[in-house]
Amino acid sequence: QVQLVESGGALVQAGGSLRLSCAASGRTFSTYTIGWFRQAPGKEREFVAAPSWTSTYYADSVKGRFTFSRDNAKNTVYLQMNSLKPEDTAVYYCAASPRPGKRSADEYNYWGQGTQVTVSS
Predict the structure, then answer these.
(1) Burial level of 22, CB count in 10 A (0-12/13-18/19+)?
(2) What angle do CA 75, 71, 64 make, to 5 degrees?
C-alpha cells in the first residue's frame, strides 16, 4: 500500500513560481516511481512529469519551466514550477507507478488527493 500527500498549491500571479511536494509513505521509492499529473476544470487529467531510469520526461507544455526532483531520505518528490501561466491552473496530483517513465494515468496505481494551483493573469 502507498499513501501520497501533495502540498504547496496556492494562488500565484502569472510569471511566478511554486514548489509542490508529494510525501510518500509505505513501499514507495524502492518499488514505485512517483510522477505528476494535473487536471484543469472541464479537461481530462494530463501528464506533467515523471522520471525514467536515466532522465525525466516532461509534457511539452511545461518543458523548460517545470523541474522534477526527489529526496530519497524524506520519501518526497517535488515539482518546481517557474514562469507560471494561467493555463497551468489545475489540480496537481502525484501518483505511483510500478514502472518508471510512464505518461499514461492508467499506468499509475496510487494517487494523492491533489493540490490546487491557480495562476492569475
Answers:
(1) buried
(2) 125
What cell does 37 get?
A: 499529473
Per-residue pLDDT tens digits for 54-89:
999 999 999 999 999 999 889 999 999 999 999 999
pLDDT in tens, 2-56: 899 999 999 999 999 999 999 998 767 778 999 999 999 999 999 999 999 899 9
